[in-house]
Amino acid sequence: MIDYTKKVLPANLSKVGWVLLGAGVLLGLLGFFIDYSRAVFAYLHGFIFLLSIGIGSLFLIALEYITGADWSVPIRRVMEFLASVLPFLIILVLPLLFNIDQIFHWSQEKAVAGDKILQHKSPYLNDSFFIIRTFAVFLIWSAFFYLLKKNSTKQDLNGDQSFTKKNIVLSALFIPLFAITITITAIDWTMSIEPHWFSTIFGVYFFSGTVVGSLAAITLVVVLLMEKGYLHPKMNNEHLYSLGALTFAFVNFWGYIAFSQYLLIWYADLPEENFWFLARWHGGWEYFSIALILVHFVVPYAALLSQSSKMNPKRLKFTAVWLLFAHLLDLYWLIMPSLLNHGHGYSFSWIDFVFPVAAAGFIIIIFKTMAAKNNLVPVNDPKLQRGLNFRLN
Amino acid sequence: MERLKKFFRFNALSGEPVPAERTKKLFGITALFDTPDQIIHAADKISGHYKDFDVNTPYPLHGMDKAMKLKPSKLGFITLVFGLSGTVFALLFMGWAMTLDYPMIIGGKPFFSLPAFIPITFEVTVLLATLSTVIGMLTFFFNYPENNHPLVDTPYLRSVSVDKFGICIYASDTHFDEGNVKNLLMELGGKNIELVYYPQKESYPIFEPKFLIFLAIVAVITSGGTYITLNKLMYLPPFDFMLWQEKTTVQSKSHFYSDQFGMRTPVEGTVARGFLPYMYSGLPQPAQTLVNPLLPDKENLELGEKKYFTFCSPCHGNYADGDSRLNQQFPNPPSLHTDRARNFSDGMIYHIITNGQNIMPSYASQITREERWAITNYIRVLQRAKNAKETDLEFARRHGSLYDKVD
Fold first, then answer.
1. Long-range CB contacts (within 8 A, 24+) of B12-20
2. Where are the alpha helices (DSSP H) in A159-236?
3. Alpha carbon of A346 to those of A43, A276, A352: distances in Å?
4. B170-228 confidence digits (pLDDT tens)
5. Chain A residues touching B63 at Cβ < 8 A
6. Does B407 have pLDDT greater than 50?
7. Pair A199, A191: CB distance under 8 Å
8. Which of A259, A262, A393 sits opposite B62 (nearest CB)?
9. Which chain B positions have a beta carbon within 8 Å of A263's beta carbon?
10. How far apart are CA A346 and CA A333, in angstroms?
């Protein structure tokens, strides 16, 4: 059994988490009384952010098992702790489900009655089927999270290698299910906000942003834990390099997919597709669109290009925080124009900032709770030693 | 067979290496080790004493860079510089070609439409980055085209490409001393310690005639194969399916339309793009409303002159006297300086060019509307020149030109 020294996270971490969550929730409740529909959209924004951190982490766990990666074994617990927000989604989604008609145009009977396209789409886009899909997806994610997590923590006790084999099988089952469920989530919770619009690549777009966001969160947490010495002392900057390289790859992937989506719609310029991008090019949203290219692609691309920038913990930490912000901006850009363009374009409101703060507090509390119960390193994983010995060349 | 093997230098694969003729100039000292751990240990120790040495292993070993104290490769900078220059070059070239050199409207987009340029910019970036990496690696790091490295054709190189791990300390190192190096290698557990000398003559087998002949044969085979595939094979069944398409050629019968006409007439009440129907076609003369839209300015008159010389002068003559070389071979084309022609309105001349008159056919399909009006203007100039007034001459003397005088 591999021993590592510092195990218990500082107690004031959960205080920080509770303060952030409490402040976020209280201000959020206030927001519901001030501007109800804006608060609902802001809640949706924070919710999708939380969801993407969780499901992206679960995907990366499955990816580690299915590819037999060694380097990520010492930091797998970080992903598992971040993925443990997934079961809570089933509860956190309830406020949104009570406000379906606030968010989704297709849910308003009046709107559907006078709209042939919405009538045509109504076999898929209707309240009951939507709720069934949402719960089915969240249950699948929670179930796989529960099983993968259970096998991983049980292995800590007796070091039975068969748990790794079980998790490989689970991961192999999860990956195709993940592809389907993340696409359903992307279409249901973000694309159908504008129900007349469609883009066949949207699921991939949502997936790429999700993985960028969760990788940024994982990188941030790993760097912070390493700096304070909570992870295994044999961990070194070559593990950080691998995290940075994976993040770099997904930043590129996001740029590639985002541009592919834009290029085809821009080139064809069909009114049934282009209005979605036009809505993001008017009324102040053009600045968001340009900022998104710079913040989500150009700057992180340059920041992660060189080898030293991926090995330097401080620079990597900065890039991770930057990318978390970029992911929030990406989701904001996806969700908010549909609400605000019914008025007169972008308008500032403090309500938009409240729920990401609450989400951050929530993640911190969950992380602290999980870390108190479990080891921060999968101490009996058969691949752990190889993972710690990982070298680039 | 032996001669053939020697000819093609297959020895390294199938038999003992041919010992190259060697000079007495020392290149380095080699030693062989049995396991990866031994070689990494040896490299770690040797890198403390010497800088000029290299390790040869059958496969890449983790931890070797660190043991040899290698600095990160400089190759990445070549990739970066050439990649970025590819980005800049592609953007500038497309910008120049699409906005200045040959502006073309594609899909109603602006001439400089960045999104359309990005895929090509990306491709050129990747192309230049990869090519420069490979070429830079070959030239700067492998000293291409030099390929007679002293280690080639030694038993050492043969062993390290099969199952041994070798190290070679170069004589060029500043601290190199034959005895010390041998002792060090022996201490580290090296076997088969050998001295390697430079080959006697510098040879570049790449420029040898047989290699060049080989290249020529490869070129002929690939280009011939490509030619036959693209120009012959593609027209044989079943690869010729692209030739059999559901289409109607001009003036052929169509099975698609109910009236079986392949060529279609325009839908009633519509006109083709850029086409304006001529409302007086077939009439003896146009209505009085048909007025010349063009000013007789320099540009229009030059256009009219050019078109007159192309289409009108073959019959009517260079100065519209009806004295072309068709005279006496054909019904004489009329002079345009008759009173009748001089009294025509501009619209009438335009009408005649458009509609034709007597034996003269319609020129509507050859000459555009604007050009017809320009020709009309030019004919007016010719007529005026034959009947110039004194004031015109005075004006021309004073200004050197008649273009500015419009009356």
1. B12/B153, B12/B158, B17/B153, B17/B154, B17/B155, B17/B157, B17/B158, B18/B153, B19/B153, B20/B152, B20/B153, B20/B199, B20/B200
2. 162-185, 202-228
3. 17, 15, 12
4. 988 888 888 888 888 888 888 888 888 888 766 666 777 888 899 999 999 999 999 99
5. 391, 393
6. no
7. yes
8. A393
9. 115-116, 118-119
10. 11
Asked if A267 and B107 come within 8 Å (Cβ–Cβ), the reply is yes
One-letter amino acid of A261: Q
3-state secondary structure of B191: strand
Higher pLDDT, B142 or A325: A325
**Tens digit of each residue's pLDDT (9 = 90 or more) over B67-77:** 888 888 888 89
pLDDT band of residue B289 (cuts 50, 70, 90) is confident
| pLDDT (0 to 100) of residue B10 | 44
Distance, C-alpha B88 to centroid of its chain = 17
Sorting pLDDT into bands at 50, 70 and 90, what band is B95?
A: very high
On the 0-12 / 13-18 / 19+ scale of CB atoms within 10 A, B122 is middle
Residues A318 and B282: their CA atoms lie apart, in Å, by 81
Q: Which of residues 294-323 of A touch B (CB under 8 A)?
A: 305-307
Please check whether residue B209 touches A, CB under 8 A: no
Distance from CA of B63 to the nearest CA of A (A): 5
Out of A249-253, B60-64, B284-288, B398-402, least confident range: B398-402
ipTM of the complex: 0.83
CA distance B66 to chain A (A): 8
The pLDDT score that the predictor gives to residue B403 is 56
The letter for the amino acid at B128 is L
d(C-alpha A234, C-alpha A386), whole Å: 11
Chain B, nearest residue to A259 by Cα: B115
Distances (CA, A) of A234 to A2, A5, A239, A377, A386: 11, 11, 10, 12, 11
Cβ of B116 and A267 within 8 Å? yes
Chain A hits for B66, CB-CB cut-off 8 Å, are 391, 393
Cα torsion angle, B102, B104, B109, B115, sign: negative
- pLDDT computed for residue A89 by the predictor: 93
How far, rounded to the nearest angstrom, does the alpha carbon of residue B90 sit from its chain's CA centroid? Answer: 12
pLDDT tens digit sequence for A167-188 = 999 999 999 999 999 999 999 9
Name the token pair of B374: 């320009």
Distance from CA of A353 to the nearest CA of B (A): 32
3-state DSSP assignment of residue B22:
strand
pLDDT at B14: 45
Q: Is A391 on the interface with B (CB under 8 A)?
A: yes
User: What is the average pLDDT score of chain A?
Assistant: 91
Interface contact A307-B76, CB threshold 8 A: yes
| List of chain A residues whose C-beta atoms are within 8 Å of the C-beta of residue B118 | 259, 263
Instruction: List, in sequence order, every residue forming a beta bridge with B54; answer none if it has no partner.
Output: B168
Element (H, E) at A12: helix A12-34
Query: Hey, which residues 71-130 in chain B have their CB within 8 Å of chain A?
Result: 72, 76, 80, 107-109, 115-116, 118-119
Measured between CB atoms, which of A305, A307, A391 is closest to B63? A391
**Could you report how far apart the first and last alpha carbons of chain B are, in Å?**
99
Residue A299: both structure tokens together = 């700057």
pLDDT at A205 over 90: yes
Contact A329, A216 (CB under 8 A): no
Could you count the other beta carbons within 10 Å of the beta carbon of residue B93? 15
